[in-house]
Write a structure and sequence with these properties.
single chain, three-stranded antiparallel beta sheet
Length: 123
């Protein structure tokens, strides 16, 4: 049983992103990896409590967006405030969803399924 690591989304506004006329701006976001956070933490120009942190992080985890050839910090900076907020919320949603769901296997019959944790941090 494999864990889903890529998630499709559609921006609510889509301004500032290259796209075919009359089409909604869609994209793909992958899960955050520890190395993403470590690379950002090592960047002296980025403070964790600043908006720049999310600009850089989204530039790493958004793998496709409209017709953009490459997703960079500059791509994210061109997003409208509503689209940026949507991307940050979506980032949190997909990463927290994965944390709450874990693959399990029944020891008696070998059946594989996803179990959900009720509350994070509690045993």
């Amino acid at each position: 049983m494999t864990l889903r690591t890529q998630f499709r989304f559609t921006l609510p506004g889509g301004r500032g992103v290259a796209v075919e006329a009359g089409r909604k701006v869609s994209g793909v976001m992958r899960l955050v990896q520890v190395k993403d956070i470590l690379q950002i933490e090592r960047d002296a120009g980025v403070r964790r409590d600043s908006g720049v942190f999310y600009v850089v992080l989204l530039g790493k985890v958004i793998t496709a967006l409209g017709n953009e050839k490459a997703i960079t910090r500059k791509t994210i900076e061109r997003l409208s405030p509503a689209d940026f907020a949507f991307c940050v919320d979506f980032l949190h949603e997909i990463n927290h969803q994965v944390i709450k769901r874990m693959p399990l296997r029944c020891l008696a019959c070998g059946h594989e399924f996803f179990g959900e944790l009720g509350r994070l941090g509690e045993a």
